[in-house]
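for the recovery benchmark. tokens below, seq after
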């Protein structure tokens, strides 16, 4: 059996954790959109296609952009 106080404490703990997870997820999405917006501006300014930009960033030409290349 579960007392109401125990159930309430469990619900609140789970609810508060999920709210925090959602906030963190939202912050990550904003950052991702900011990066994407910046990328689009650079593409337009330089007159490049997405493929051309990728090729310029992929310094070791392994068809992957690693974190150090992206920075």
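predicted aa per position
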């Amino acid at each position: 059996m579960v007392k109401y106080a125990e159930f309430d404490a469990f619900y609140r703990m789970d609810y508060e954790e999920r709210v925090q997870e959602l906030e963190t997820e939202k912050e990550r999405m904003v950052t991702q959109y900011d990066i994407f917006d910046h990328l689009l501006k650079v593409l337009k300014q330089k007159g490049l296609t997405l493929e051309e930009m990728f090729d310029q960033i992929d310094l070791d030409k392994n068809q992957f952009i690693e974190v150090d290349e992206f920075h």
